[in-house]
Amino acid sequence: MALDADTLKQLLDTVERFVEQRLRPLEFKVAEEDAIPAEIAGEMRDMGLFGISIPQEYGGLGLNMSEEAQVVTLLGRTSPAFRSLIGTNNGLGSQGLVMDGTDEQKEMWLPRLAAGEIIGSFGLTEPEAGSDAGSVRTMARKDGDHYVINGTKRFITNAPRAGLFTVFARTDPNTKDARGVSALLVEAGTPGLSLGAIDKKMGQKGAHTCDVIFDNVRVPAANIVGGPKNEGQGFKTAMKVLDRGRLHISALCVGMAERLIDDMLKYAMERKQFGQPIADFQLVQAMLADSKTEAFAARCMVEETARRRDAGQNVATEAACCKLFASEMVGRVADRAVQIFGGAGYMVEYGVERFYRDARLFRIYEGTTQIQQIVIARAMAREARGA
């Protein structure tokens, strides 16, 4: 159910002020210290940002996809680490519970996720399982009314501060693909669960990832998302939330591109060469125009696809199109921004090189560009066959 127009406007105005007045001034500090200040996390909790997509009956804001995209686009106008802090609570870390969780699981975890009392984390990627998600090797062996989990998850966002892990593990050892993989809820602090060192990444400082190691971790069978009846259904749950996650990241890419366009236009109008602003030169104008056009196209794609999803349409192909185009688009815009800034674009103090590095990840996580291409092409073939 959509918010009324006045409430939505108030929310968007509040988020926009928060980004401009609180988050943007802290971008260099977060990059240098590789940490988000505790007071900022507290302010995000107070604003309800940890629960924007969680239903209101569980303490969230209950935004639909169109509303969520508008909020995320605004958050994209600053360092992506800030958005990452709330990302899994609103995405894969909660939506599987919203769609497939038992009443008991929802009541136990969703209010705490929505309030930011705990951070959710999503454990799928492994040393040998990334794009080929069906090749999960982490095992969950049935032992009475419990499962015993063994394996390692890699590059897990928010793992260093997570309170709840949604872990994909193979509960049927006789399968070698997505069948037989279940999603299990594992609370931080469970004996046998440990964390690796925080990863040192190319960009997105302040957004932490690390390995999550399971060494005979015992969890009740009731911790399968949806309960024991959902054993082996983990990937079906994941597929249900993919559209929302892809649109969320696409909206984030749009926001970052629009921020970069603002910065590069301002610089081009102020920077003078040969006695005039470089914005007067046609080749610079071409880079500005291409960036504006591509960002606008991505925004239109996200807005239309979100609207269709809210109307109940199947947008799996369109969401993949958005993720493919928006993530590639923001990479091109970031590259042009460095070019327009010239030597200054290569220097840390201007911040453009940081966004250039940050943007590179968008083409990899939440499904690589190549995976989106496969998803789109296969859907086209199915439709052509009438399947």
Strand content: 5-15%
The biggest beta sheet reads: 4 strands, antiparallel
Number of extended strands = 9
Mean pLDDT: 95
Query: CATH homologous superfamily name of the largest domain?
Result: Butyryl-CoA Dehydrogenase, subunit A, domain 3
Strand order across the largest sheet: 2-3-7-6
The CATH topology of the largest domain is what?
Answer: Butyryl-CoA Dehydrogenase, subunit A, domain 3
CATH class of the largest domain: Mainly Alpha
Radius of gyration in whole Å, from Cα?
21 Å
Distance from first to last alpha carbon: 32 Å
Helix content: 40-55%
Oligomer: single chain
Question: What is the 3D shape?
Answer: globular
Order of helices and strands: HHHHHHHEEEEEEEHEEHHHH
Number of helices: 12
Q: Which architecture of the largest domain would the CATH scheme give at its second level?
A: Up-down Bundle
Tally of individual domains: 3
